[in-house]
Amino acid sequence: xxxxxxxxxxxxxxxxxxxxxxxxxxxxxxxxxxxxxxxxxxxxxxxxxxxxxxxxxxxxxxxxxxxxxxxxxxxxxxxxxxxxxxxxxxxxxxxxxxxxxxxxxxxxxxxxxxxxxxxxxxxxxxxxxxxxxxxxxxxxxxxxxxxxxxxxxxxxxxxxxxxxxxxxxxxxxxxxxxxxxxxxxxxxxxxxxxxxxxxxxxxxxxxxxxxxxxxxxxxxxxxxxxxxxxxxxxxxxxxxxxxxxxxxxxxxxxxxxxxxxxxxxxxxxxxxxxxxxxxxxxxxxxxxxxxxxxxxxxxxxxxxxxxxxxxxxxxxxxxxxxxxxxxxxxxxxxxxxxxxxxxxxxxxxxxxxxxxxxx
Length: 359
Prior knowledge:
Number of helices: 14
CATH architecture of the largest domain: 3-Layer(aba) Sandwich
Largest sheet: 7 strands, mixed
Strand content: 15-25%
Number of strands: 11
CATH superfamily of the largest domain: Type I PLP-dependent aspartate aminotransferase-like (Major domain)
Strand order of the largest sheet: 1-7-6-5-4-2-3
Oligomer: single chain
Structural class: alpha/beta
Radius of gyration: 21 Å
Distance between the termini: 32 Å
Number of domains: 2
CATH topology of the largest domain: Aspartate Aminotransferase, domain 2
CATH class of the largest domain: Alpha Beta
């Protein structure tokens, strides 16, 4: 019933997620450009080679593989890093922990060890809490750390923060995985090259997201520690993620890395989130709960007005107990979208306030 209500509430514009947006016109044009003629399948085509070259030029040398979904990228990445008796340390808000239906545990057989992360980011102190019973056959053995950039709370790890975690990981025989579903937004927010917060910061394996930044569908797995790529072709095939017409995934990534499209898209989405945060925090009764650093705004909105606002603009309630909303902006969010949504919230707050005074 709830999903049906959400579906009925959808409008042309929403702040539910950046994966609710359509594909960027330049991505669609790139797909049309590779559509003609016959080419070798399964990635043996020149467009796939071009996309891989563009990605490594931006993030640094590594082995690149295309897959369909972010969950597949995360799980197959981690499957290359840990065995069933080992564990992945992550934030308690991590997508791989909360929103992938136990895919890592099922497909790998490993255990996830969550760390409380009220602002999305984990620290070495939190990681150290799980570094015990090492070598004890009765306990799972930590093997990998997974961080999300930007985090599920829209906060961003700096290159230094990632480097500190990477140094701790490597000193202690661990590997560092990054869920980069919104990596482009993080890089745009920090104003740094992609490689500064991936390979150069010590990341071993990256799930590079494209869908949330203007692609129709497509993610990439990048192994900077190239030993982890051994046999990955077979893992991807067994994981049912080998695309026959791979040129259509690759062409989308090539578009992102042409004329700075990834940066333009991400920077615009970030600007709209900053504007949305400014508009919302000026409304009585609405409070931001997280710093607005990428393209996400978290704010408490009076529970009594949520349903009425969602009739026109859908968004997710992240924490129902606190009536904390998560609002995501995308490459096609406009200033008018932000202004109209903020006006709707203000009007709903004012109307309910007036009703209470009348009663």
